[in-house]
Amino acid sequence: MPDYQQGYNQYQQPPQYQQYQPQYQYQPQYQPAPSPSSQSNDSVSVGNWIISLIIMVIPIVGFVMLFVWAFGSSTPPAKANWAKAQLILILVAIILMVLTSLIFGVSYTEIIRYVENFS
Is the pTM of the predicted complex or chain greater than 0.90? Predict the structure, then answer.
């Protein structure tokens, strides 16, 4: 005969729960903020920017200096990024001028041919 009492007692006892303790696998490493003296070495002063902009208006010298500032090893990162951005903008401007010249050149030749047909 099956023992029903044993099964009943099994359900009468309160369940035993284990305390859940999360296991963290990654502990973030916090680094201290950089000191102001280390940031001042990478910054560019206002006077340096003014001199750079004055050099940029000199036709050939400004273009050559962009390459020196963009790819020079002693240039601060802010000025190097600025020079690279300027070179990219100059390249985009040249491409747009060439495309515009081609479009207007083809249009001009078509207009001339059209006008010559009526003469």
Answer: no
